[in-house]
Amino acid sequence: MLARSHLRLRPFELHRPTSVAAALDHLTMGAALAGGVELIEAMKGGYQPAALVDLSLLPGWRRIERQGADLVLGAGVTHAQAIADPLVEAAIQGFQAVWRQIANPRIRAQGTLGGNLMAGNPAYDLLPVLMALEAEIVGVDPAGTAWRVPAGAPLHGLITAIHVRAGARLHFDRGWRPVLGVAAVRRGDRYRAAAVWGHGVPVAAPLRTAKAWVAAISPFITNAAGSADYRAAIAPVLAARALAALP
Length: 247
Ligand SMILES: Cc1cc2nc3c(=O)[nH]c(=O)nc-3n(C[C@H](O)[C@H](O)[C@H](O)COP(=O)(O)OP(=O)(O)OC[C@H]3O[C@@H](n4cnc5c(N)ncnc54)[C@H](O)[C@@H]3O)c2cc1C
Fold this sequence. Notes:
The chain has helices at residues 4-8, 20-27, 37-44, 79-84, 86-91, 95-99, 105-110, 113-118, 126-132, 210-217, 228-244, and strands at 13-15, 31-33, 51-54, 64-67, 70-74, 92-93, 136-140, 146-150, 158-165, 168-176, 180-187, 190-196, 203-206. The protein is α+β, with helices and mostly antiparallel strands. Flavin-adenine dinucleotide binds next to β2, α3, α7, α8 and β9.
């Protein structure tokens, strides 16, 4: 017997381009497929793209490498890959301890960093971490023009890579999610933090003192998970905790 969810999948074309230009061509008619965690669920729920464009054969899709001062992560790097590669921990101390806590083993094995960003879910963790790290996202727009923007800026077209300047220490206090999560980063004597609370784009700001930082990022919003006042009250606590836990 077929599961109900299988019956809902309509036939689609599958393209497996080996160049970004070919991928963009196919994307005019279809949806980008990375790990498929989000996309296949959406299709089971009724989303019916005429074609899927599997990005896994694009050059450098799963690369993790140093380019000068930058750690470069291909958009197709899976969470599990990022957790296991020593280059990542060498560039961002603490990242792997934090990233081991997200999702579950199946999602970490299948889901990609690019897919996490492009899912556009305001509760997801990668964007605030990248904002605290002052990372840059690299991609191409639908017309094929390359772009490179700071994490937190709007993304469109295809993400190809994430650049993070090496030499950071990171801690992410996820203990109060979905009410609030706080990622703190130290670079030399500079501190920066980002807050995520399941709504809109996370906010990042220099972290001088936990209180000053909260003033810089407020106002919080009230939603089903918690009130703005409550978030404002726990934010300095989480920031102080994240600071204390920095490796
Ligand atoms: C049970 C569960 C628990 C989870 N827990 C967490 C958590 O604790 N923290 C967290 O941060 N996340 C969590 N996630 C989210 C998870 O990290 C993402 O679902 C995953 O990373 C998506 O990646 P993917 O490659 O499978 O994306 P896909 O499903 O392949 O793609 C997602 C979307 O992005 C588009 N896309 C993918 N790659 C690109 C690209 N390179 N350029 C342009 N568009 C692209 C696709 O077309 C699609 O619209 C969880 C998910 C599940 C199901």
